[in-house]
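Feature request, filed as a ticket because there's no other form

It would be nice if the structure record came with a short human-readable summary line next to the tokens. Right now we just get the raw output. Example of a typical job, pasted below so the devs can see what we mean:
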Amino acid sequence: MPRLILFNKPYDMLSQFTDRGRETARATLSDCISVPGVYPAGRLDRDSEGLLLLTDDGRLQAQIADPRFKLPKTYLVQVEGEPDDAALTALRRGVTLKDGPTRPAEADRIADPQLWPRNPPIRVRKSIPDSWLRLTIHEGRNRQVRRMTAAVGHPTLRLVRWSVGEWTLDGLASGEWREIIV
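Raw output as currently delivered:
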């Protein structure tokens, strides 16, 4: 039976178990997870937080990570400014990035979610408000959500992946993990 671990990856942690070739080692998955034989199914950038799935099953890893399977990935995104209806419509239709157009996304304004504090906190600018979006995509290009929000004029300040497919962060604090049966 395949193992599947749901991990709430903290900010400033690499989505890998080692950090070779640097004088100063950065935080890695091995700082929180000591389960042998599991590997990340997909990536989450060092400056992003939230759900990272790990498994010991290659087929399951491919189904989670490969965009052909179109597993929805939902992000809670704190952005600079307050996106208007035109910005949300653009995200919903898909925006054109340097590597081509994105697929349509689900995009909604949401109230500030009750999340763990980020360390370090985001930069706050008194003259520019910030707001939160829930954005669901069905692909996974490099830094895609950040590039999409920037394309509609609202740079990302904080990015938290809340769910991948049916799996969510619900009940997991930053740095915590749990194994589930698949």
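Something like this underneath would help us a lot:
The mean pLDDT is 93.
The longest strand covers residues 156-164.
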